[in-house]
Amino acid sequence: MNRLREEQGTVLLLVLVVITLLTALLSDFAFSTLVDLRLAESFRDRTKAYYLAKGGVRFGRMLLQEDNNDHDSRDETWAQAISGYPVGDGVVSISIEDHDGRLNLNRLVTSQGNTDVVIKERLIRLFERLEINEGADLTAALIDWLDPDDDPEDLGAEKDYYLGLANPYQVKNSAFDELPELLKVRGFSPEIYKQLAPHVTIWGDRLVNVNTASRELLLALAAEMESEAADAIINARQQSPLTAIRQLKDLPEMEQSYGFIFRYIKVSSSSYRVTAWAETGAGISTLKADIKKDGNQILYFKVD
């Protein structure tokens, strides 16, 4: 009788063990299924957000193609940001900025590998207007980062400097692909980058759109540019966008400055950045596209 009871107890214990194992297995399976479901939902939402943002970029490109007048300014349709516009079960925000109202850093060095003296001097003056010290040193370091040789400029830095860092890397010796690359150039701290970034770009030509340029950049156009002249340009464009360079000649404040800057300015833009942000469910996506207006060409595309 005792033996029978022992066998029954053993069987009961085995049953309890099996039930416990099955319960644990089912719980683990249920949890894994829930995780997989959440991951699938998250992937679905991110994918939807990506394509929604991509549609925002396409819409921005359409706005630029529809803008066919002879000037570009911040009061035009393309420059009016769209924020939180509902589309389906998500929202999209779109903003467009022109590159030509900024100084193109890639133009510091010509396609032949030579320094563009006009752009160099303009950049040094911009550093001064922004009260950034050692502008000549920073400009020299930029030239060495861009030019194809390994011969350092006076005050510059080539491969020996970068390879001698605690965490060494190669000097690029070619054009910037993205503006944040500035942070890799000797002397460019996050603070300096933050100050400089609103006034510079890596796209566009040598000419600056006076309809969209900052006051600091207007003052940096030439050594002879006076504060009164820059303020006169800003006041004039606020009244009505400038549609021809010769309009500046009629401003009394431009009498001393016009002859020094008219060759380096324009009233239109040719390249832009379209930024589209979208959110749907748990998915968020930000796309940035640099666009050349002529031919609706994508110069650079990035997913953040």
UniProtKB/TrEMBL annotation:
It comes from the Bacteria. One of its GO terms (biological process) is protein secretion. It is found in: Cell inner membrane. Keywords: Cell inner membrane, Cell membrane, Membrane, Protein transport, Transmembrane, Transmembrane helix, Transport. InterPro entries: GspK, GspK_central_sf, Pilin-like, T2SSK_SAM-like_1st, T2SSK_SAM-like_2nd. GO terms for cellular component: plasma membrane. Residues 208-256 form the T2SS protein K second SAM-like domain. Residues 101-203 form the T2SS protein K first SAM-like domain. The keyword Transmembrane helix applies. Transmembrane segments: none annotated. NCBIfam families: T2SS_GspK. Belongs to the GSP K family. This is Uncharacterized protein. The lineage of its organism: Bacteria, Pseudomonadati, Thermodesulfobacteriota, Desulfuromonadia, Desulfuromonadales.
